[in-house]
């Protein structure tokens, strides 16, 4: 038996909650119908492409005969385990570094120490590289995974073949917008970093003027360590968001497999 697959509702994703709870995003009202909002993102070429998928000139081919399908199709359990493995490897890459044998590049968090005096204009640069490198790694890995899952749907019924084609169309249409929107999360992290750094430098200057001895509250770790953990949390939340189409395809695959049995 396969495990229950995660579900995400509009405006309730882990990433949205993280940004809202950390005052990086204003809470948005839940929309009852995403159709009009999605329509704002599409231009006429996108609409033509989607219409072609939903109303093909030639119907999707009948399901492959069972004896041939088994040769190229993974079981629901095997496909679920594979998806879980890829996600777990990406989660570990964010939290601790890429696991051996995963094929993922190791992307290390910058050292927690900073050279004094701290230069505000360049202090975030190592963290920007860390963050964007993980975003690129997720994007590449999940694009490949999503394509692999679609291929498995292609071995099944005509309706799953159409779903796979529709997902491919949406990925092509929305990938650029997704990249732009998710890049803003890094900008929000940078803004928060700059605010915390400025507050630290202000306290440091006030302490020096007062002749106070530096204490734990003025150490770099007092403000930097929480921000480092917040970056990892944001990346984990982004991973959940990026994985939603894959889990949706997998749920359709598993439901179809159950109905066949």
Structural notes for this entry:
The chain is built from 8 helices and no strands. The chain is an all-alpha fold and 261 residues long. It has a domain of 124 residues. The model has no long low-confidence stretch (mean pLDDT 82).
Content-based structural category:
mainly alpha
Gyration radius, rounded: 23 Å
Could you tell me the number of beta strands?
Answer: 0
Proportion of β residues?
under 5%
Order of helices and strands: HHHHHHHH
- What about the largest sheet? none
Mean pLDDT: 82
- Helicity, as a percent range: 55-70%
Topology:
Elements: H1 14-21, H2 35-39, H3 44-54, H4 66-72, H5 76-95, H6 125-154, H7 158-209, H8 220-260
Helix pairs in contact: 1-8, 3-7, 5-6, 5-8, 6-7, 6-8, 7-8
Which structural traits does this protein have?
8 helices; mainly alpha; 261 residues
What is shown here, in short?
This protein is mainly alpha-helical and 261 residues long. 67% of the residues lie in helices and 0% in strands.
């Amino acid at each position: 038996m396969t495990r229950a697959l995660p579900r995400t509702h509009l405006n309730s994703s882990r990433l949205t909650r993280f940004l809202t709870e950390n005052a990086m995003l204003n809470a948005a009202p839940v929309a009852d119908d995403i159709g009009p909002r999605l329509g704002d993102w599409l231009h006429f070429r996108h609409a033509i492409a989607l219409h072609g998928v939903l109303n093909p000139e030639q119907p999707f081919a009948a399901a492959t005969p069972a004896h041939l399908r088994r040769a190229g199709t993974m079981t629901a359990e095997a496909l679920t385990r594979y998806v879980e493995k890829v996600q777990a490897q990406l989660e570990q890459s964010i939290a601790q570094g890429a696991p051996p044998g995963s094929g993922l590049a190791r992307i290390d968090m910058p050292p927690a120490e900073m050279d004094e005096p701290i230069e505000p204009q360049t202090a975030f640069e190592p963290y920007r590289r860390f963050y964007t490198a993980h975003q690129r790694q997720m994007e590449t890995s999940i694009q490949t995974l999503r394509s692999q899952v679609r291929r498995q749907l292609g071995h099944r019924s005509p309706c799953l073949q159409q779903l796979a084609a529709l997902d491919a169309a949406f990925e092509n249409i929305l990938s650029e917008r997704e990249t732009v929107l998710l890049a803003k999360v890094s900008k929000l992290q940078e803004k928060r970093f700059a605010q915390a750094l400025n507050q630290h430098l202000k306290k440091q200057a006030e302490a020096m003027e007062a002749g106070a001895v530096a204490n734990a509250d003025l150490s770099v770790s007092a403000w930097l360590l929480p921000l480092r953990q917040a970056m990892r949390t944001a990346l984990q939340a982004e991973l959940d968001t990026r994985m939603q189409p894959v889990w949706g395809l997998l749920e359709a695959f598993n439901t179809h497999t159950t109905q066949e049995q």
